[in-house]
């Protein structure tokens, strides 16, 4: 996901001189489905051709070992370079420019070559577009309308009150309709201020709910590396903040891009890595020694910060008093599935959302298209909503269906669900689990 913006800049700068072909070699079974891949192409605004390499044939042919891997092929069809891992545009651009200059000097770059004809995927109009997270408060519902690059404020019945953000993907502070976000995700509210994880802007934003004014409270707008020391919030670069949780005047941040949990001190206006070394994986222990993997959801309750650790398909427990990380369910980067039970037998598949209610944790088990309940005392998981088949249906728990839900939030009326690939917000009643749509596509 960090590579897409760099590729987009290359496409804009060089046009048809550079042809980019995406190769999707899927880790999770749910990612092998071409229909799900189409949704991902739309969600991440990809305009170049993408191959579904579901059987890893291209991966093996080019010696793939890491996500992402960049392979450079010259105009004569020869592989001339390979790079494993992310490559910032500042390094990417001069590399490509030097290659093009060399090809032109050698006379092998054909300026008359026709561009590849690509069939575009139609994007239907929706009230919401790939909503990533939802936040239920006593008096309002807030939705990260992720691909519309805005925040929606609604009544608890789903009727929309107002929106924040122009809809253009950018980093702009100011009044509600002038301000701009870029693929926002998680939110947290303190009084009349709504904090937003502005994921692709690598920033934390604040919305004054009385005035509608949007400001930036952390991040520079540029993607940054993992760090261990504190820094001024506005001068410190972040990397894909995905969710937020507030404890008084400390805002915890699921920093998915660096595989860490960070802490933003709202009074001191400083931010620092809080838990995790930055190494991707699953390792328990003291805060400064633990490993996480693309942490994407946070739930704070009773002195514990629970983490939906998506890439290891796990739920982690940060004991804020003991300052220790432990794993409730989940095993490793390549251990996943759909299995209820207790502790070591439990298998999830890329959970993105988590919330707490009455001593239980509720999970958006995204790639399993389910909502699950986790009892942290017994490390026991049970499916609550959804059959596992991707679809869109209201109704009783076993009949309701979802498509890659990625946000959940407990409210007095029930569990609010950001049903991402269905472009809707659903509500499940606490008593019987009846699901109904409150904001439709």
Protein model, in words:
There is one protein chain. 10% of the residues lie in helices and 36% in strands. It has 441 residues and is mostly beta strands. The chain folds into three domains: 3-106, Glutaredoxin (3-Layer(aba) Sandwich); 129-275, Neuraminidase (6 Propeller), CATH 2.120.10.30; 279-441, TolB, C-terminal domain (Neuraminidase, 6 Propeller). The strands form eight sheets. Strands 13-17-16-15-14 form a five-stranded antiparallel sheet, with no helix packed on it. A hairpin with a 4-residue loop joins strand 16 and strand 17 (270-275). The longest helix has 18 residues, at 89-106. The two termini are 25 Å apart.
Secondary-structure blueprint:
Layout: H1 3-14, E1 22-24, H2 34-43, E2 50-52, H3 57-61, E3 69-73, E4 79-84, H4 89-106, E5 134-136, E6 141-145, E7 150-154, E8 160-164, E9 184-190, E10 193-198, E11 203-208, E12 214-218, E13 231-232, E14 241-247, E15 250-255, E16 260-265, E17 270-275, E18 285-286, E19 295-301, E20 304-309, E21 314-319, E22 324-329, E23 341-342, E24 353-357, E25 360-365, E26 370-375, E27 380-385, E28 407-411, E29 414-419, E30 424-429, E31 435-439
């Amino acid at each position: 996901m960090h590579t897409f913006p760099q590729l987009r800049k290359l496409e804009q700068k060089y046009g048809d001189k550079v042809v980019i072909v995406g190769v999707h070699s899927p880790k999770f079974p749910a990612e092998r489905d071409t229909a799900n891949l189409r949704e991902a192409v739309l969600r991440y605004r990809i305009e170049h051709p993408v191959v579904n390499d579901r059987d890893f044939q291209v991966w093996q042919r080019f010696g793939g070992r890491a996500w992402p891997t960049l392979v450079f092929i010259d105009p004569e069809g020869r592989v001339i370079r390979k790079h494993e891992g992310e490559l910032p545009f500042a390094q990417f651009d001069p590399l490509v420019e030097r290659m093009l200059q060399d090809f032109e000097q050698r006379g092998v770059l054909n300026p008359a070559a026709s561009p590849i004809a690509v069939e575009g995927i139609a994007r239907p109009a929706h009230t919401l577009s790939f909503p990533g997270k939802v936040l239920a408060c006593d008096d309002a519902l807030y939705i990260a309308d992720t691909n519309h690059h805005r925040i929606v404020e609604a009544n608890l019945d789903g009727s929309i009150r107002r929106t924040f953000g122009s809809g253009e993907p950018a980093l702009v502070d100011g009044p509600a309709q002038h301000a701009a976000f870029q693929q926002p995700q998680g939110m947290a509210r303190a009084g009349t201020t709504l904090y937003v994880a502005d994921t692709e802007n690598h920033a934390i934003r604040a919305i004054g709910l009385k005035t509608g004014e949007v400001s930036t409270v952390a991040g520079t707008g540029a993607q940054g590396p993992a760090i261990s020391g504190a820094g001024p919030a506005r001068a410190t670069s972040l990397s894909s903040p995905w969710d937020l949780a507030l404890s008084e005047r400390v805002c915890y941040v699921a920093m998915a891009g660096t595989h860490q949990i960070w802490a933003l001190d709202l009074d001191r206006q400083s931010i620092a890595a809080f838990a995790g070394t930055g190494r991707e994986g699953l390792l328990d222990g003291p805060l400064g020694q633990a490993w996480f993997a693309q942490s994407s959801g946070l739930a704070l309750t009773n002195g514990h910060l629970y983490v939906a650790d998506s890439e290891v398909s796990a739920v982690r427990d940060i004991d804020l008093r003991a300052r220790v990380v432990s794993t409730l369910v989940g095993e490793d980067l390549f251990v996943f599935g759909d299995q209820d039970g207790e502790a070591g037998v439990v298998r999830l598949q890329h959970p993105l959302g988590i919330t707490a209610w009455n001593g239980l944790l509720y999970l958006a088990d995204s790639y399993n298209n389910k909502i699950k309940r986790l009892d942290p005392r017994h490390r026991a998981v049970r499916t609550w909503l959804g059959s596992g088949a991707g679809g869109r249906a209201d109704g009783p728990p076993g009949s309701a269906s979802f498509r890659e839900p990625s946000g959940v939030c407990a409210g007095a009326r029930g569990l609010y669900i950001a049903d991402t690939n269905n472009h809707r917000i659903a509500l499940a009643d606490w008593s019987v689990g009846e699901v109904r749509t409150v904001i439709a596509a």
